[in-house]
Amino acid sequence: EELIEAFSVLQQETDVNIKLVISGKVSDREFEEELLSLISKDNDIHYFRNKIPVDEVQYHFRSADVCICPYRATLNSGVAHLAHTFGVPVIGPDIGGFKQLLKEGGGLLFKQNDTESLLDSMRESLSLDMEKTSNEISNLNAKYYPSKISNKFFDELLTFFDWR
Fold this sequence. Notes:
Helix content is 53%, strand content 11%. The chain has 8 helices and 5 strands. It has a 3-stranded parallel sheet, with helices on both faces. It has a two-stranded parallel sheet with strand order 1-2.
């Protein structure tokens, strides 16, 4: 709800033609009905309400200028890392893995459960230095490259169990 509210305010404030795409299956039927009600009157909000097939995920990220993760609670986000693999900056809450991931750039943080802070990050995203942000994302992708993470985990596991 906070994302839709912030998007509506941003639409009114800016002369930039912006769209909001909400992708993925919602498991809470009651929440989905509320979501449909909130977006029903806005032609600039598009909701893909089913699970996104693996071969179509790329289209959602490649068409995005920014990936917004309006989570109220989370420890980490595969979506944020996936967005970065497509070179897309992320807007996420200042908690859990987002705080760690975005402290080095690659997107913007907002205060958890704070619509005004989310709106401020969305405003700021309209004027991101995309060359700088792209370099930040490349650095993060190199840092979080799967085999690098796997090797680090394995080394720490060996050390933890004193198997060396």
